[in-house]
Specification:
- The protein has helices at 2-8, 10-20, 37-46, 59-68, 106-115, 154-160, 180-189, 212-215, 218-222, and strands at 27-31, 51-56, 75-79, 91-97, 117-128, 134-135, 138-139, 164-171, 174-176, 197-199, 203-209.
- The chain is an alpha/beta fold and 228 residues long.
- The two termini are 26 Å apart.
- The structure holds S-adenosylmethionine.
- S-adenosylmethionine binds next to helix 3.
């Protein structure tokens, strides 16, 4: 599952990181890190001079990330809700993928991510429009998610969190017959699409910059202490 998601949705992640020029020494947080696919990818890019906080509200994720990032001491796993995000330092990049569809209030979590970033730093969110995905032309659904189509609102949510919108786009992996797209869909739904054409939920990427509005949260960050 980890590997599958990494395969089929790798392209938007790579595009976003390249677009930002993320490199050695960057400080990042991956909120809703799950098994740590993105945290480990970021850890490789920022190197040992950098730092990646892998934050997830589920304590089990901490162990999973620790295993996935065993050879990356720059990846620090923290059990914390995105709504309570508070790090020992301001970061250059606050990132989330497939998180906001599950949280109670996506705008509150985005605002909290904005508060974790230094002035001029970046917030990047990658979230799906589930109902725009298709199997044999029929829309997909995700009844367990609170906001399955949050991707469609993402640019506006970023602006209301006080962020400056730099770029936004949508990408959807698509295929027919056996392969990573069919495997990924089967792992999500338990249904093998066979030879039916599949368009996975488009992932909307928003790249936004924290500016003056993020400064308003600065005293909160300065009160933070200690590591994960
Ligand atoms: C679908 S997984 C995404 C994992 C990873 N971001 C990825 O793209 O592979 C969603 C993760 O968000 C976490 N999560 C859900 N609500 C959260 C919250 N309010 N704060 C932090 N993490 C949360 C879940 O525990 C889960 O690990």
């Amino acid at each position: 599952m980890r590997g599958l998601r990494d395969d089929v949705y790798r392209r938007p992640l790579a595009t976003a990181l390249e677009r930002l020029g993320v490199g050695p020494g960057w400080r990042c947080v991956d909120v809703g890190a799950g098994g740590g696919d993105v945290s480990v990818a970021l850890g490789e890019v920022v190197g040992r001079q950098g730092r990646v906080y892998a934050v997830d509200s589920d304590p089990r994720a901490r162990d999973e990330v620790a295993r996935a990032a065993a050879s990356h001491t720059q990846v620090v796993a923290i059990t914390q809700a995105g709504e309570d995000l508070l790090l020992p330092e301001l970061v250059d990049l606050a990132f989330c993928r497939f998180l906001l569809l599950h949280v109670f209030d996506p705008a509150a979590v985005l605002a909290r991510m904005a508060s974790a970033v230094r002035a001029g730093g970046y917030v990047v969110a990658q979230e799906p429009i589930t109902s725009a995905g298709r199997i044999a032309g029929n829309p997909l659904s995700m009844p367990d998610a609170r906001h399955p189509d949050v991707g469609a609102l993402l640019p506006a949510l970023a602006r209301s969190a006080g962020l400056e919108l730099i770029d936004a786009w949508a990408e959807a992996p698509a295929s027919a017959g056996p392969g990573p797209v069919a495997d990924y869909l089967s792992s999500l739904t338990g249904v093998d699409p066979g030879d039916d054409p599949v368009v996975l939920p488009p992932l909307v990427t928003v790249i936004a910059r924290a500016g003056a509005a993020a400064d308003a949260w600065r005293p909160l960050q300065q009160g933070a202490s200690g590591g994960g």
